[in-house]
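Can't attach files on this board, so I'm pasting raw text. These are the components:
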Amino acid sequence: MSPVLDGFAVVLEPTNLLYCLVGVVIGMLVGVLPGLGPAATIAILLPVTLGFEPVTAIIMLAGIFYGAQYGGTITSVLLRLPGEASSVVTVFDGHALARQGKAGTALGIAAIGSFVGGTLSVIALSLVAPLVAEFALDFGPPEYTMLALLGILLVATVSNGGMLKALIAAALGLLLATVGRDGFTSAERFTFDNLSLADGLDFVPIAMGLFGLGEILYTLEERHRAVHAPTKVANVWPSRSDLRQSSGAIGRGGVIGFILGILPGGGAVLASLAAYALEKRRSRTPERFGRGAVEGVAAPETANNAAATSSFIPLLSLGIPANATMAVIFGALLIQGITPGPQLVTEHPELFWGVVNSMYIGNILLLIMSIPLVGLFVRILRIRPTILAPITVLITLIGAYTVNNSVFDIGLVVFFGVLGYLMKKLGFDPGPLVLAFVLGSLLESSLRRSLLLFEGDPGGFLTRPISGTLFALFLAVALVPAARAIWHNRRTDPRHSNEPV
Amino acid sequence: MSTENPSTADEPSDDTRPPAAGTVTNLVTATVVVVLGGAALAGALSLGIGSPSKPGPGTWPALVSTALIILGVLLAAAARRMDDAEKFTRTGFLVIVAVGTMVAYVAVIGVIGFEIPTALLAFFWLRILGRESWRTSIVVSLAATCAFYALFVGALKVTIPHLF
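---
Top answer:
Structure tokens for the assembled complex are below.
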């Protein structure tokens, strides 16, 4: 148990506590800006954390992560603009409550639910992650190849928009990851003799451009959609009857969230939808849902926070990020010189437990800070987007410079900002691209090591029990939807019934 | 489930969604994907793809770009049925102008420092793109520049090119 307690000692150092607090607050501040979800918020704020010690930086990032999550809830409730997919269901009852003048209740219940869900999930994570890491210590290159492939495929399967487009985005991400010097032969690949590209593309400008700037450019067109925030939010503390009504929803939401969050892909999205559906089905008065039921806010908000926390398990124990936000955190860890993976818990216990325990503190700080600060957020939401947009753009551009002190990186951010805008316009989710980019070099080096190991026989993947199982899973995930689509086409479109498919 | 499914009654922001793009946009997208994949494949082949037992620097890029080409062809085949792309409308012009200001920003920042470009970019976005008043535009752009100077040069000690 002692490394766990040491972790708490790390977190409770005054500097770390302070930066966790700062992280939560600025995470919320940026997270409430419409359109900027957690992945974008973390990407934009990444450069701020670079000057710190690794543990402090990660604690601050965890704070930003929680803050940004909650920021999305605030915009869902007040503006009907979910910051990200996992708070879309919150809109239904949250905004209905806001229209009845009970926005405070909705935000308060969401904060409490997030706290409970997050805390339960951290406790479970503390128990599960080391076990998974121990199991994964035996993984060799073939297992990692299959795991990374499966992760990318799962994220593509559940991403917003079509699977085909998500896979194209992922393939682009994998290609971008190959730019630079080849780690095995030091051959220069796709650098076009540009010195700035010789060391490969950096993760930060890609994430800042695709998530941050791309989003800002996209919303630039949608100005006319701007919605106005309600003038005041009263009664932030939920009443006792509200609490009683939602306590069951919070408990069930926490469990659903934890379990679904471990799965790669849209864990938090699925969890919030599942928790909402379950509460509606269980309720004796399902007609209240969509018209301001407190449980309709409590369940999805608890579930998405629990899922957000448990999605750290595959990252910290396997080194495989489960979604786009985790990919950004993975990139942040790499910049700090930490490679997440099964060795993390044994080789850097102070760091592992520091990160995990900072989540407890982050959750507590979130609860303490969110309720009194709601008034401030409402005021920020009343600032016109025409004023916020240039400020965010400049933070992004200058921030990008600070990572490597390179003007070239600012150019990259602009380039990927344009790409992000075009992708968003054309129905491509940038999430799979960023995730695949992050996993790209791991995937390539694992594949090449595996091929060397098997002396060129790809059948070797099938004969090892774990990689074989993962491959079977991969095939199932890839082929089941395709088979279903073909089956569906044959049934509905008689012209195709006689053609071989 | 009941008929009062909130997703039909109260779908957020779907009522204001811009019009969907046509088949042409989808076909162009698919073509770009295929061309990108083809260019990457050519690059990979010139790097040397090696053999399964001796993978070379081009092996993996060749695999990925082949996958990209196949996916692009599938996308072209499905172009008619896709409706998740948005039409490019006249408001897209705003985006082009905005990108232009950022390109200019990158071009001059190394030469004349970040203060003047920062203030100008902020002013341009506020006054021209945002149609804020002259007073708001001037005050906000100057205040933001001072705040960035205090944050990045003063507090974070970033070595960004600066005048003062």
